[in-house]
Design a protein that fits this description.
By secondary structure, the chain is α+β, with helices and mostly antiparallel strands. Helix content is 60%, strand content 8%. Strands 3, 4, 5 and 6 form a four-stranded antiparallel β-sheet that branches.
């Protein structure tokens, strides 16, 4: 007898085209395709914002996966059929109404597929050898069928998080540099380089740029702000460097003179150390004492 799985859910639950698409994807997956259930679960956790699932829904998915005895998901035997009481217990005592709501979220997101029995109960029919011949519950085949998609979404989320982290670091560094460079310029009396603008006005421009930082940081909102702050920081640093070079030209000249003196190849080279002053005096005194008797003769 050929096995038949229902396409529509039991009771007042409705069928959507998204549900049909998930069923088609699970049905058309290669039978030899296999995925590690906890690795793909981690990918779904990383991509949860893109999939529209919450942490509580992921806790329910985790509980569903524990009812599959194998670590690797492959083949056709991918239906788990725990009761709501068993599932709620493994989902850390989740309330029945909350459990049903998050199960619906997983089904609507195409992560699991509902395979309801004629009376809506979850159970399995076993053959003479004790093997499951027909099961009604939640089909995990969509996890295998969409494994590559989940990995791609997780990689995209990770790349976006890294880019957001980098732009936030860039803004933080620019804020620190601009604040301290403006303070140094005011204390040292460095004239501002912008035409008609004093340092307080430049600081006001800096504060105005920071005032556009969104309350909820996004990459699209922070990138132009980071670019403006970088340009302002480069301009202020250029002003400080120009002022330093214009007010301290003697440092470079003295350095050049020292270099010329040290590079004089005609200077005599002493191969032996000069005699100490004490020894010179002692030798002179000895000569004097030797010469005095001769002068008395």
């Amino acid at each position: 007898m050929e096995t038949y799985y229902s396409t529509t859910p039991f009771g007042r639950r409705t069928l959507t085209l998204a549900h049909v698409a998930s069923q088609v994807a699970a049905k058309e997956r290669p039978p030899e395709k296999a995925v590690h259930k906890w690795r793909i679960y981690q990918a779904i956790c990383d991509a949860r914002t893109r999939l529209g699932v919450s942490e509580r829904a992921l806790a329910v998915l985790n509980a569903l996966l524990t009812f599959h005895p194998e670590t690797v998901l492959t083949g056709e035997d991918l239906i788990v059929f725990p009761s709501n009481a068993q599932l709620a217990r493994r989902a850390h005592g989740m309330a029945p109404a909350t459990l049903r709501r998050h199960l619906a979220v997983l089904v609507d997101a195409g992560i699991v597929i509902r395979r309801d029995s004629p009376n809506g109960k979850r159970y399995a029919r076993r053959g003479e050898g004790g093997e499951v011949e027909l099961a009604f519950g939640f089909d995990l085949g969509a996890l295998v069928a969409r494994a590559d998609e989940f990995d791609r979404l997780a990689a995209e989320v990770a790349a976006a998080d890294r880019a957001l982290k980098l732009v936030r670091e860039r803004i933080t560094l620019c804020r620190r540099d601009i604040t301290k460079m403006i303070a140094t310029a005011i204390e040292e009396g460095v004239p501002a380089g912008r035409a008609g603008q004093a340092w307080p006005e430049i600081h006001g421009l800096f504060r105005a740029i920071l005032g556009r930082v969104p309350r909820v940081p996004t990459l699209a909102g922070l990138e132009p702000i980071a670019e403006e702050l970088s340009l302002l920081a480069d301009e202020i640093l250029s002003i400080l460097e120009s002022h330093t070079n214009s007010t301290n030209p003697s440092a470079n000249e003295s350095q050049d003179e020292r270099h010329k003196q040290n590079s004089n190849t005609e200077a005599p080279i002493e191969s032996e150390p000069a005699p100490q002053e004490g020894r010179v005096v002692a030798v002179a005194s000895s000569s004097d004492r030797t010469a005095k008797p001769e002068s008395g003769i």
